[in-house]
Structure formats: structure tokens, C-alpha cells
Amino acid sequence: MHGGINGEVTQPGPEVALNPMPMDFLNFGLLGETSSHTGFGPSRESSWCYPSTAWQKYPHGEPPADTPSHGNLSDGEDAFRQSLWSWTPREGDHWRSQTAELIPCLDDLLSDYIAQSPQTYACIPILASTRHRLVSMMLTVSGEGNYERIMATFPSLATLNYLLSKDLQCRSMELHSWIHMARRAGFFQLGPFDGPLPRVDDSSDTLEMKWQTLGIHILNVCTQFSLALVMTPLVKYTEMSVPLPAARSLWDASSAEAWRSAYLALENQSLASLPQLRTCYSNFATLLHLGDALDAPSAGLAILSGLWMNVWQYKERVKARNTSTETLHTNTNSALIIQSLQHEARGVLEDFKSVYTQLTGTMEPNLLALHEQQLMHLYISLEDVQYLGGKAGEVEARRVLPLLTRWVKGRASRQAAWHAGQILRVSRQELGPTLRASIIIALYHASLTLWVYSILSDVPSVDMPIATSQRQLHQNRDHCAGREPLALVDGEDTPVVQRFLLVPGAIAAITPSVEDMQPIVLHISHASAVMTAIATLLRDRSELNAYWDCPSLVDNLTRLVERLGRTAERVYR
């Protein structure tokens, strides 16, 4: 498959089945288990509220005396339940309850895709009379005030046929089946490059046959899905015996002739010297000796994607410990093993960053975001944050609240907040359109980290306005005797940041960029202002280039982030 190795997530071409509202993709994180598309059962139809923390049943008796009370958390649940993809109907609700968040007109959304991808229908097309009956059914159950809206926005016959055809096509392109077939066919075990090399005297037919090959795009895609959905990776780097990707110029070649010209222009034409992907994890310094035969960005993305497995193994071990019926601190050996897994995963990530920076001089934004995202996952369980928000019910929420309360008092919470801030910093850089989706997911997870840190931490708010300029910040420091300077978690690694990471009770902030204004500082304890700033950043990242446009995803996440901020101010303060 030409172009299989790609340093970035590629956009679907006209031949790829496109679902404008992919439920399995949108249902990552805290959006709940609401659709049969995800493979889970139906959502709970009953509504419930978290009881007060003081009344919760702790597994080992009364709650600790220093456990803070955050009041009734039902508003926090509502913030997640109001998400379009997690909306659960209650008694008295009707089909128009979520009208404000529905896409206004499918015809407008899909017109470009329908024009670019003429349909070859795998089934009998829908008749016009069938569409008329569907419209009639909608009008029957609606009020007269909605007639005009229904008639104006109901999908056209072409749109209905397009959606049905795409749905049927998607059934044959499900990710699991694709991965299993690739694994069984041996595409993960190609070994060192031993294929025919291009020659000057090759004929067009011979050159065309040499040009075709399959890359390691599967590993990158599976890692992105695992990060987004917080689920087990489907592909492990230990089974990837394919060689590292060759020079980018070879993969960007538009024809076999261009491919040959790019190969002959390389200083290092020994593609057989490219090591296997799985052998690089024991010695990253191998990358420094491959010269221009290596596509550094693609190789870096592949290696980082494989390193996610180390982080996942640590997270699974922590999850097993936290769900154990035994006391958390009785098994010393288990604690040492978990700690060693964390140190190993972090050490390998930092070693790779050091070698890659030495190789290329700097780390690309997509690699840096993936690097910081994995480091953040080492210090926070986003699954627990989801459960606290009401994803799995009251029992799970009661179970994870003591865990997260204990977590926020330790250094791990500040480390997670620091890496979340670094994700914000990376996302402000100029990004290509093909990086937009992965950055949106990383931003959303970073917002959850800062949200839970803000609502559960006991760090007092600094005596200054929520938003203040850098000049005013220094004045307020002098005015507030005994106050330590703010650590900017989305800034450079400074001594102030190191103090924040090491000393409990240190205060931190973020610096959202505002046009036509001096840089401002948002204290991290002001959840509403911080979440509003992140929501604005989410919109900005999605609107930079019209080539990548997924309003249903970004709008839904933006509303959820804003609601979480408002809920934190109303309930937890």
C-alpha cells in the first residue's frame, strides 16, 4: 500500500468510507456508553445523584478526617450527561429535547462528500415514496411549530442513499477485522528490507511492481485509538518486525519514476541497513547512524506509538491494585513492581526524546504532543476521572473518589497537571491539518486532568483577579506577602515549576493567548476560567484550516468542557 508509512494521520480519500458522525470515535473518554455502535449495552435510563461525600460508605470504615467535602456531585454528572452522544432520556423528555445540539441540516454537511464520491449502491436505492413516508412519520409525532424546520432540514433522497450505502460499506472495514487479517497475513513480520531495489535501466512495468509495498501505519492508528478511547492497544511493538520507514522522499513519490529518482538521490542507499522496529526499543542510539535512508518523523511516530504499550502495562497494574479487596499498602512487593514499571516507562520516553532531539534538532508538534500525552497518563487515571463524572454509575463514583482525593494530595497530581499544561503549549503551535484530530483528543484529555486537579485540590486561590496581566502579576506578588510565584504549567521548565512539582501546596497557572492584549495568567484553581480558555483553544485548533472540519466532535467537546468549568465553580467551591 503506497503511502502506508506516514508521519501523520492521513485524511480519508474519496474511496474511504466516511461517517460524518462516527459514534465509536466520538464515544471516547467521558462521553459514556450510550450507543450500540460502541459494542456496549444500552445506557441507564434512570437518573441518580452522588450523595454527599460525608455520607459515602468507605470500604474500611469511616472516612478520614482530612477528607474534603465537595457537596452534591449531581451537577458534575449532568455536565457529562448533557453531551449529545451521552444524552439519556428522562421521564417527560421528548425527541426535541436535544434539538439545540443536533446538526441543522445533513444535506449541507454531506453535499461535498456526495459530490466527490459517486455512489455504487450495494443495495436497492431508497425510493422517493419511502422518504415521503419517513417525513410523514416525523410530522405525525411533532407539533405544528416544528413542521417548517423538519421540512427544511430532513435529508434529501441522495443523502439518505449516501448514508445507507456508507453504513453498509463500513461493516466490511471495521478495525478489528483489518488488524487480524494483517496479523495473520504476516504484514507485521516482514523482516529486514530484501526487496528489489530500483535501477536506472528498469522498465516501467518492472519499476511499478517494485514500488508497491505495505507500511506500519496500523501501529500508529491503533495507538491513537487506544489513547482516545482509553482502551487496550490492539497491536504491540513486540510483534512489529517490519523495518523502520525509509526516507520520506521515497514515500512521497507520486510515481514509480519519481520513486526511483528519490532513491538514487540518497547518500545512503542501503535500505537493508534499516533495523527492525522492535529492535530499536533496546537502543535508540541506532537511529543516529542511519543517515538520510531513514524517515525520522515517521520512525519517531512509530517508536512512540510502540512505547504506549509500556504506559498501558503500568496503568493496568495500578488498576488491578486499586480494585483489589486487600488493603492498598499491605503488599510491598506489588508497590515496588508498580513503581519500577512507572520509572521504566518514563525513563524510556525521556531517553527517546533525548536521542530524537539529537538526531533532528527538535521534536515535531505531533510527536511532542504524543510524548507529553503518554507522560500525563503515567500520573493520572482518566478512567477514574470518567467514573467520577458519572460514566459507570454511583458505585464506581464512590469507589474512585477516595482514590482521586488521595491522588491530588501527592506529587503525581502535579506531574499530571504539568504535562497537561505542556499539551496546551504544543497545541498553540502552527499545526498541519492532518494533526488536528490527535491534538483535539490530547487537548480534551488535558482539560480533564486540569479539571479534576482543580476541583479536588485544596490549594488556596492567590489574592489576585482571575485574569491579570504579567505586569500586574509582579505587583500582586509584592502586595501578597509570603506568596510564592506562580508556576506556569504551559511554559518553560523553570525553578518555579520544579518547586511546584516538588512542594505540596505550590500554586500554578496557565497563560492563554489573547489577541490584542497583554499575556494573561489564569490561576489553576479557577476552574471556570481555565476550562473556558481550553474551550476557546479547542475552537481555534479546529478552525485554522477548513480542510479538517468536524464540527460535531469539536462542538460537543467544547460544550462539555465549558459545562465542567461552570459545574466546578458552582458545586466544588
Describe the structure.
- It contains 22 helices and 4 strands.
- It has 573 residues and is mainly α.
- Helix 14 packs antiparallel against helix 17, helix 17 (411-427) packs antiparallel against helix 20 and helix 18 (436-456) packs parallel to helix 22 (551-572).
- Residues 1-65, 99-103 and 460-482 have low confidence and may be disordered.
- Helix 20 (495-502) links the parallel strand 2 (487-488) and strand 3 (508-510).
- The protein starts with 22 loop residues before the first helix and ends with a helix.
- It has a domain at 105-172.
- It has a 4-stranded mixed beta sheet.
Cα gyration radius (Å): 26 Å
Sheet of most strands: 4 strands, mixed
Q: Categorize the overall geometry.
A: globular
Number of strands: 4
Structural class: mainly alpha
Question: Strand-and-helix sequence, N→C?
Answer: HHHHHHHHHHHHHHHHHHEHEHEEHH
Measured by DSSP, the beta-strand proportion falls in under 5%
The separation of the N and C termini measures: 55 Å
Helix content: 40-55%
Number of helices: 22
Average pLDDT rating: 71
Uncertain runs: 1-65, 99-103, 460-482
Strand order of the largest sheet: 1-4-3-2
GO molecular function: metal ion binding
Protein name: Transcription factor domain-containing protein
Keywords: Metal-binding, Nucleus, Transcription, Transcription regulation, Zinc
